[in-house]
Amino acid sequence: MVKAALYLTIASWALLLIGIIILGVVARILDNPWLLVAVGIIIVAAWSILVYGMARGLATKRVRHR
Amino acid sequence: MELPIAVALSTLASVIAAYAVLKCRCALAPDVHKPSKPLIPKLGGLIILAYVTVSLALTGLGGLGINPTYGMVFYTTPIVLGVIGLVDDFTNVHELLRVSASVLYPLAVLVIMGNFDYLYFPIIGHFSNPIVVAILTIAFYGVFSNAINMMDVVNGVVPYSMILTSIIPLAYSIMTSNVALLQMTLTLLVPSVVLFALNKYPAKLFNGNGGTYALGALVSGLMLYSGLGTLILLVMVPYVVNGLLIVVSSRGIKSREKLKPSTYMNNYIIYPNLDEGSTLTLMKMIVIDEPGDESKVVKGFYMLFNTVAALTILLFIVLYLFRWV
Fold it and tell me: CA B170 to CA B9: how far, in whole Å?
């Protein structure tokens, strides 16, 4: 029943973990809090675009199936 | 005061609050997903407020074992936001005022009390710059106190997810004998268990805005000050996704009444609203494959939270074994 929601949630979890790992690597390389904040904002923005796009795509696909 | 006594008395206070709310039967709201539309009290926030207030009064900020500024933010923000939520349960508080309070109150405490300490997030590292600490505080309190409110659409989901969120900090505080973290975790866990007993499907009590704002503030504080923020954030992914979908699809922060419904009901079966411009939510994503009654939707939400909690616990075990937490 919850295939679309489960897929979206697991993909969002995995993408967020990837973003956190990237942030962790950047933190160790840059050692500058402001650059880290900037990279963090970019990662959050990219994550939001991907997750919203995925949700729209899944919803549209399911509606076409119905 | 010793932690077990403080926890026992605070638990007793929250149970008494629950009993009083059920007996009083004030601030009633219809449970629209049930055929008989029973009237349910929506003052679950009093359970959280009773626990946090008694716990803080018994131990005091000095007895918490954490930075006093962070202790003040952690324990008083749920009280302030919980009271605003309770007022909102009786008379509508403008959404911008609610969002501003969730951001400005913790920021004001930080600025007035000063004495910033570093924040630690597993995998990412330490943040010691005061302005960065302030930005993170605003972001976490602003997002999560409102994101939890947005998810409170069916019985039991919010307190259930709070219980799951408490598992990792509870285990870590016991493994490392960290009494301050244990107390912070129990402040989220114990009232959530009491609330879950009454809010689980079919609900005898609603969380209300008081309950969801107070829980949102508690979980935000736990993310910031537990040293396990990254892992707690990962358990909270369904909230972040739901909040993102609502804010983007409805083009801004709007009150629940102003949103174009994401679902509709026919014979107590919940269907996705496929109209152009309807709000996209996690609940809509749950029923888009197969419409179902409220109990099925609740089970769908439980499955999502169980999955992310299980994945995050596995990640926690790996990080713990490699000494990265």
Answer: 19
Measured between alpha carbons, how far is residue B308 from residues A43, A49, B21, B303 in Å?
A: 20, 21, 33, 9
Q: Kindly list the residues from chain A whose CB atom is less than 8 angstroms away from the CB atom of residue B125.
A: 24, 27-28
- Residue B265 inside a domain? The answer is no
The ipTM estimated for the assembled molecules is 0.95
Residue B62 has pLDDT above 70, yes or no: no
Domain limits for position B232: 3-251+298-321
Contacts of A4 in chain B (CB under 8 A): 285-286, 288-289
Look at residue B273 and tell me if it is in a domain: no
B318 interfacial to chain A (CB closer than 8 Å): no
* Confidence band, pLDDT 50/70/90 cuts, at residue A66: low
- Encoding tokens for residue A4? 């679309």
* Nearest-CA distance B304 → chain A (Å): 6
The partner residue sitting opposite B307, judged by closest CB among A6, A34, A59, is A6
The answer to whether the CB atoms of A1 and B315 lie below 8 A apart is no
For residue A9, what is the nearest residue in chain B, using CA coordinates?
A: B238
- Asked if the model's pLDDT at residue B1 lies above 70, the reply is no
B135: contact with A, CB 8 A cutoff: yes
Phi, psi of B29 (to 5 degrees): -135, 145
Of B211, B99, B102, the closest CA to residue B155 belongs to B211
Q: Is residue B189 part of a domain?
A: yes
* Structure token pair of residue A9: 């949630």
Domain boundaries, chain A: 3-65
- Residue B314 burial (CB < 10 Å; 0-12/13-18/19+)? exposed
State the Cα–Cα distance between residues B45 and B85, nearest whole angstrom: 8
Provide the domain count of chain B: 1
Contact in structure between B205 and B41 (CB atoms under 8 Å):
yes
pLDDT, average across residues A53-60: 94
Q: Which residue in the set A9, A13, A62 is minimally distant from B289, CB to CB? A: A62
- Comparing B12-21, B163-172, B269-278, the range with the smallest average pLDDT is B269-278
